[in-house]
């Protein structure tokens, strides 16, 4: 009986953890069910975002910038941190994105020379 109670408690803890630790995975373009994922993002304060290296940045970056909502900008700031993110988009992301996008650009290994002064000021400010 004691083993059954322990297993039931463990099972309940695992089930609660799975409910708490949901993730949105962005691993292809076009993003399947983008509207549903965005809604899920807004409705769950504990959800995490996982993005993978993509090869279609010429399409996805303009789409996310045009969407311009919090979810799109979170995805964008996460993509900026990927090694294969094209440097040609960094200035556009910096000037059209939110603070998270700006910080992602500033901490990128490929930060353009034209943004170095802006990034220095941003890093020194209390954000």
UniProtKB/TrEMBL annotation:
Q: What is this protein called?
A: Uncharacterized protein
To which species is this protein native?
Neisseria zalophi
